[in-house]
Records
---
Amino acid sequence: MKIFKIIAALWIIILSSEIFSQAPNISSIPDSINVMAVYGTAVSDSFYIANTGDADLHYNLFDYNSLAIGLEMLHENDFSIFPGTDYTNSNWTSLSGGAQVTGNNLTGVLISPQFSTLDCEGFYLAFDQNFFYQPGSYSKVEYNNGSGWSEVYFQNADSSTAHQKIELPSGPTGQLRFTGYTTKVTGNTAFWFIDNIEVVGSWHFYYDCSWLTINSPIEGIVTHSDSTLIRFTCDASGLQTGRHWVNIVIESDDPDEPEKKITVHFDIILGTPLNVNTYIENDLLFVTWDEVAGADSYDIYWADDPYGPFAYFWSTQLTSCAISTYWAKKFFYVVAKSDE
Ligand SMILES: [Ca+2]
Ligand SMILES: [Ca+2]
């Protein structure tokens, strides 16, 4: 009988502690949030911190552990400023948003500033070009990895519009020198046009949460049976296309869930080519479209009917293509693509 009394007393103590202690209860926290933005743009999203307990919930939140996979831009010049920030130039001129050297027995030399390539392996130089060859002319690219100049590209026999992607030797620093020598032969003057110089690092993992900004207060109180909206922005500026992610951690005084984690997946996609147009010139049908930021190439699809079915037709790094006027009754659409 005595034992029963003790058990009964314990039971009452346990029961009363269940009844009278009050606790917050964090809820409505998603495991992950998927956010998508077009290359170079920012997008906002939000989530709720709800409290279904019967006491105030005190929380604070922070972002951490953002593990991204991407291609690192080590150096770039799209000639939006001519000849480019800290470039030295002789005889190259600004043309159509790029740089061109042309003339009779003229040498143009364009030298980039030094840029850091420390801890980078397997990176490459990419650029667009249009080299109109005449006998004696040449186009040449040299690279200085910190221990002297070496030639990485040379063309002295043919015209070329081929987009270049050239692996560069590693070293502590990088510097580029573009030399064009142009001649005039039987009335034709050679030229070399270049644009979109990029030195891009190889695929790698890196930690960076700078693209995520939490716009709401990062600490606060949610009263019982209430909720608080947390807004955040993901900014794709300076990020490559592909998936990036970050964890938002919410610490609170919820007794059994003191730490909750939301993984934000941030997908950066390319925009849609706008203003797809056609015109006929010199017995050729030209299809043109606006450049898409971040695009490395474009796939062109065509069909006999405006509603399709569309079939793959051609791929190009330019923003136009020329086709026989025999195909003038075709319908076209264009998809932007990136190398990643
Ligand atoms: Ca809880
Ligand atoms: Ca340009």
---
Amino acid sequence: MSDQPIRIFISGACAGLAEARDALAGHRDIELVGTASEPSKAGSKLASTGAQVILHALQRPDSVPTEEIAKIREHTSAPIILLVTRSTSTLLDEAVELGLNDVMLLPQLTDNLVFTVKKAHTIGSMTGSGGAGQRRSGDSCKVITLFSPKGGVGKTVLATSMAAMYAKKLKKRTLLIDLDLQFGDAAIMLGADPRATILDLVMSHGDLDSDKLAGFVTHHESGLHLLPAPLRPEDDALVTDDRLASVLSAAKQSYDIILIDTAPNFTSTVLTALDRTDELMLVASLEATSLKSVKVCLQTLEMLHYPLEKCHVVLNRADTKVGLKKDQVETALGKSIRFGIPSNRAVPMAINRGVPVVMTDPKADVTRAIRELCVAFSPEASSVTEQAASTAKLSRRDRKRIADETQRAQLRDADLAGASAPAPGAAHSPDLDLEFDFGDEAAA
Ligand SMILES: Nc1ncnc2c1ncn2[C@@H]1O[C@H](COP(=O)(O)OP(=O)(O)OP(=O)(O)O)[C@@H](O)[C@H]1O
Ligand SMILES: [Mg+2]
């Protein structure tokens, strides 16, 4: 069990509730993560709080308001305690029948309140109904990783925007993990004030389960949960592959969608994430160096026996007039491109405000394109491939060797001004064979 405070959410209203709320909120073992006096409004708030125990107060304790409870249940399977000022045997029977955890009479001593919350939480944890939201098998969670061996192509813009879209508009329990462990800036782009980072989580004592995870994520106003990168670049090595694997399996129990933003390098951290990824988005821009990186990346993944059906090239700033067209890029990469994201001034403006563009400009073309991307990859959409992604067929050493080799080739290629002149002898320098068309577009 975690040593973090238990996150509670209080809904409804009744006499004595304000005193109970203040007493609980002031207790060191409890964290009050939200309140909603109108039960109909509790749902949308609940979705983003990761509450572990719900206290629902009844104005009229004659019977259990089944509709109100059903509304809460739509958003969480956390234990529910009813708070009432008087109780009847009918009420108790109904509460048992509905699977509620307890009925408490107010007023109560603070210790009694805390004890009941702890008891509900413990039983909830044992039966799998507590946690950051609905606890689940992990099978229906989708892990989407955004990667590109080239920096500055829009991985973080897309990761943060997609996460906000999934959480706010598509109502998915969404976790964004910033695996750009040295220079991650997802928190800045979201204007978030992190309560902890992934480093704090992996360095914490004890089992790394979904309860513990819930105590370390930062809640964003869109409803997404964020696990930010460490604050200091030199701490990246402390996030070991084994601990990261535990973070991911714990997260799969609590979320519908996990988005992983990455650094522009083929590190073992990235490989660990790839092994647990359902859909890999290779973010590219319409520049020869970026396309070359994507091609190198696809070749490397092939060497790692990674199922290429899971790899999707997402062309960011796809409408930029730079003499290259999508079909030329498809031919050069040998891969079709289903998703293009337009360039829009709203993106850097949103970054400067610390708000994802999908929230600042809900009607912009870039927001529409991001929404389409999210819908296509949402957990209920039929997967592009059901095959399990795994680079595990290769030994750890081989994986590292291939990744290092690729990175070296990548560095050699990084300074190339044009794709038509690959570095001689570069192990994975692909022949892009691009034809540029600077006709009318360049002037536009
Ligand atoms: N669709 C877009 N329209 C306009 N500008 C964009 C768009 N996507 C990204 N940008 C701009 O590109 C810059 C780089 O984006 P971002 O930080 O997401 O790249 P990155 O791939 O995460 O980079 P790094 O590898 O360094 O982490 C952003 O600051 C933003 O201004
Ligand atoms: Mg980035």
